[in-house]
Design goal:
single chain, Rossmann fold
């Protein structure tokens, strides 16, 4: 049973992707543009956004630092002045491996600012407009890109994991609040995807997939009307099962598997 309206026809859909200069965000932008969506890509660095706009005629590049609430509000106003948005997807993310034996406070706070506060800035800027669009008969959708790292505590994820757990909880609350008003909500929990963020990992990443594969999984999820999307299933289903283990078993298993 679909929890959201299914999105199968992207022609003419206005899409705003925040954090789309590389990785999953850029791959989703490419996939949606190929299906006829009117795509706006945002990120902090202008060069990759301008390159995307050149390579994908009809798309729009909007430079934006999601940690700047005023800038996000201004960007949203600019986009909404041209018409309602059909999909807003927050893909921005920051990642650095960290353990509690070597805490870096500025890095901890940077994760919170990019991964959580940035999402909140976008919500404040677009949710009223999405509610208005739903009331007018459209079916707008809001999507947050979290991670399987937010499902349970993992070694080296002191800075990253808690922010993704926050996004998962946030998406659940948004669904409860917004879906009855006609606004679709989804959360995306990828496993290991070959992006600039994961490139810094010094350990083997099981079931590693490409950003293009991740993008296709997300489009399939939106087409099914899913609330949660997690992939690749051969890896994430195992992690799903670990979520139900008692702490005594879970902690022992993680130590055994990782050696940490």
């Amino acid at each position: 049973m679909a929890l959201n309206p299914r999105i199968t026809d992207w022609h003419g859909q206005r899409v705003w992707l925040i954090g789309a200069s590389s990785g999953i965000g850029r791959a989703v932008a490419e996939a949606l543009h190929a299906r006829g969506a009117q795509v706006c890509v945002s990120a902090r660095q202008p060069a990759p956004l301008e390159e995307f706009a050149r390579q994908h005629p009809g798309s729009q590049a909007l430079v934006l630092d999601a940690t700047d609430a005023a800038a996000v509000a201004t960007a949203a106003q600019q986009l909404l002045a041209d018409g309602p948005l059909d999909l807003v997807c927050y893909c921005a993310g920051h990642y650095q491996a960290m353990r509690a034996t070597d805490i870096d406070l500025p890095e901890l706070l940077r994760h919170q600012q990019v991964n959580v506060a940035g999402a909140l800035h976008v919500l404040a800027a677009v949710v009223p407009a999405l509610l208005g669009a739903a009331k007018a008969g459209r079916a707008p959708h809001l999507s947050l890109v979290a991670s399987v790292a937010g499902w349970r505590g993992l070694p080296q994820s002191l800075a990253y994991g808690p922010t993704k757990a926050a996004l998962i909880n946030l998406a659940e609350v948004l669904f409860l609040d917004l879906r009855p008003h006609g606004v679709g909500v989804s959360v995306v929990c990828p496993g290991f995807v070959d992006t600039p963020l994961t490139a810094q990992n010094a350990f083997p990443m099981p079931a590693l997939i490409t950003p293009a594969q991740a993008a296709q999984a997300m489009l399939r999820g939106w087409a099914r009307g899913d609330f949660e999307m997690h992939f690749p299933r051969r890896f994430t289903v195992i992690l799903k099962l670990l979520r139900v283990l008692p702490y005594r078993w879970y902690f022992a298993l993680v130590h055994r598997l990782t050696g940490l």
